[in-house]
Structure formats: C-alpha cells, structure tokens
Specification:
46% strand, 220 residues, single chain, 3 helices
C-alpha cells in the first residue's frame, strides 16, 4: 500500500465568470516531510485519510448565498478524483464567508446505511446505532507505542452527548478562497495527550472533532 507524507490539505476555490460560473474546488495534498516535535522530531506517515464534507455554502453575513447541491463528498487520499468538486453557481452574488459540515449529520446517520458517497463499501460506516465515521486517519509515527508504532483515529458518533459532526465557518472573499487543513497540528495535539487510538464515539472523539474543526483555516 502506498504511504504518503503530508501536513496540509489545501482547498482551492477557482471561479470562472459567465452567465453563471463553475466553481472548482480542488483539494491539494502537499507531500512534504513533516515532524511533530515533542522533545525530539517525530516524523509521521499517513496510510489512510478519509473524511466527509457536506453542505458547502457561501454566506453573506448571516444569509445563505448558495449551497453546493451535492449532498456528501467523501474526500479520500487514495482517490485523486475526490479532490475535485465542480458546481454551477448562479451569476451575480457576493459572499464573505464559507461554511461547510465536517462529517455526516445525525439524520443520515440515524437512518442506517445509504448509497453513493455514504455506501458502507467505503469503510466509513459502523452500524445503525453508531452511524458513520466522519474522519478517519491511520498511519505510523515513532512517537506511537511499539511494536507497530501506529495510530488510528476513527472519529464519529451522532447521539447526544457525543455528536461528533462539526459545522465550520471561515471568513473569505472572492479573492481569498484557499482553505487549509492542518493535519500535522491535529496529530500533534493527539500525541501530546498520549492519544494514539480512538475507535468509538465518546469524549475523546469529541475532543478530536473539536480540534479537527479548528484545523481548517484561510490565510489572511
């Protein structure tokens, strides 16, 4: 299996004007060597990275300008086609923020397995009572316990008080549409708390879901 090194996921939104326009959302994986420093350098390698995005929405103040019509997008490091989203947008709108959901909402999770991007064949569905995995990260790092030095984070859960989906809103403009996901910092936060494996809904999954949401940002 191919193992890729990375620290960031980059979302690049490119707009092409016309009678409406097509917005291309390209997710770029930056294959650079990454060290997590906790007294010494700890390079990590990613084997699996998958997460759900949905309800990609352009906002103007509190008003919704446009919502990307596709329900769920499964972003998968192993599938290059998942890194590109193209949607038609009506002409003549202004936005100052972008909002999107990281994960699967409670309604979809509570109604069993679905098809399309939510097909259980993708390995992102637990069971009817636990729902979908919102974010899956697997890999190796010397900071992890031997003998395998591996880590596994399957972040999900939809029932109160452990609903792990997160809605993320970022300030943006027509000229500043590049969004980053800082995976290196997310893993550093987990490792610094001696957290190397989360496989069920609960308090630990909630903390990592919070940190994952904070890992998305737009550079000023």
């Amino acid at each position: 299996m191919v193992i890729r090194k990375l620290s960031l996921l980059t979302f690049l939104f490119l707009s092409f004007l016309g009678e409406g326009f097509t917005t291309d959302i390209t997710i770029r994986v930056t294959p650079i060597n990454t060290s997590l420093t906790s007294g010494e350098a700890h390079p990590f390698q990613i084997k699996t990275l998958r997460f759900y995005l949905s309800e990609i929405t352009f906002m103007n103040g509190k008003d919704t300008v446009w919502t990307e019509p596709e329900g769920y997008r499964l972003i998968d490091l192993a599938d290059s086609s998942s890194f590109h989203i193209a949607s038609y947008v009506p002409d003549g709108f202004f936005f100052d923020a972008i909002r999107f959901r990281l994960g699967v909402d409670s309604v979809s999770s509570s109604t069993g397995a679905h098809t399309g991007a939510l097909d259980p064949a993708y390995g992102m569905y637990w069971a009817w009572h636990t729902g979908y995995v919102n974010l899956k990260i697997e890999g190796t790092c010397h900071a992890c316990p031997p003998p395998k030095n591996d880590f596994e984070f399957h972040i999900g859960g939809f029932q109160s008080p452990f609903n792990a989906e997160r809605v993320i809103t970022l300030k943006a403009s027509n000229n500043n549409l590049e969004i980053f996901f800082d995976l290196a910092n997310l893993l550093k936060e987990a490792f610094s708390s001696n957290q190397f494996r989360i496989m069920t809904p609960g308090a630990a999954a909630m903390r990592m879901a919070d940190n994952a949401a904070k890992s998305f940002y737009i550079r000023p």
